[in-house]
Amino acid sequence: MAGAPITKPDHVTEKWFSVPELRLRNHRFVVPLDYSLDSETSPKITVFAREIVAVGKEEQAMPYLLYLQGGPGFESPRPSEASGWLQRACEEFRVILLDQRGTGLSSPLTSSSMLQFKSAKELADYLVHFRADNIVKDAEFIRVRLVPNADPWTILGQSFGGFCAVTYLSFAPEGLKQVLITGGIPPIGKAYTADDVYEAGYEQVIRQNEKYYKRFPEDVEIVRDIVNYLAESDGGGVPLPSGGILTPKGLQALGLSGLGSSTGFERLHYMLERVWDPILVPGAPKRISQFFLNAFENWHSFDTNPLYALLHESIYCEGASSRWSANRLREKVECKFDAIKAAKEGQNVLFTGEMVFPWMFDEIHALKPFKAAADLLAKKEDWPPLYDVATLNTNKVPVAAAVYYEDMYVNFKLVMETAPHISGIRLWITNEFMHSGLRDAGRQVVDHLLGMINGKRPVY
């Protein structure tokens, strides 16, 4: 029975608890770090999942829905009430929020826990087991232990979670009843490389910058002033509260969050409004405010979720290395992204997007210890496949995907080139939402996709 407590050597179920309109209980699974090894000899890690139902449905027989979070390297949401997509899903599903391995409560790889490794190579060799292929194997491990009769379940993948969903379709379609994807169709097949992703990404980032400065033209001069101030400071930047340094390139990285979500423009603008300390005493020197420096560090999640920076480019790698793809591709368009040159010449300083650069491991305090490991991962060539195009071409699992026309993180052009490789996929293409559509209008998005996949909306 769904509500019965379970305690097995590799699966522990905790007691139900409540938040408004929801009942929740935690599951902890002991899984192999490396599924290619014998289950007895492989090192073990813990994977955490939280089961959620609407109040009163604890004992009801309901289909299961697994949620796969975006990232990579981010844990599932921590619900405090019934709202958004989760509330909609709980109307007909028993929802499982999975902390993907290395995140949240799943043997988390934090800026402190990773210091336990004695060498960069030891850490890099460990990190190779934390991509989508093993996340899917964890999901299958959980499904056969959690779902009655090991029945297939529905999955909802947001962003990188959508990439994981396509990996799932490639290697374990027997575990899937239906698939919902929001802003997360990956470039599929060896014909696509990390370079293809970032080349298309820079084009979209330039467009997002144009829209941002059109929306807030007063920020053009503010950003130039900041860049000039940083460039003229000792060491080419100013110290950050954590011990890192804010440089012009670091400032540009605010575009990672500021240019791609529905409220990102406003948040970035309000942050820039308070960049300078007021001059309270005549003759006092101009200074960047502590408010801004704290806000800058809080804007990113590298201190709490360093796995994102370490593995981001690897999600595009199959049988080839990334070789710091975003950085190499930037060099080709550096005439547009040279912040110091742009500021001095009175041009718009462009923010960058969802890109991780090697200099981040010098300037961001939480990432400094992992620079050598990051470089080893960037040079790794023998990444295993993440997708099976032949299997996807003959897919029988119903799939519905929300595709956001102006998505800065998952390029629309690449999506439209690669989605046809997934047989039977139905696309909902919209410019009503940005990449954050599931967060911003979750009930509407999930309802639309379920309608598509369950025949409530016409095929054409």
From TrEMBL:
Keywords: Hydrolase. GO terms for biological process: proteolysis. Transmembrane segments: none annotated. One of its GO terms (molecular function) is peptidase activity. It comes from the Eukaryota. The keyword Ion transport does not apply. Residues 65-209 form the AB hydrolase-1 domain. Belongs to the peptidase S33 family. This is AB hydrolase-1 domain-containing protein.
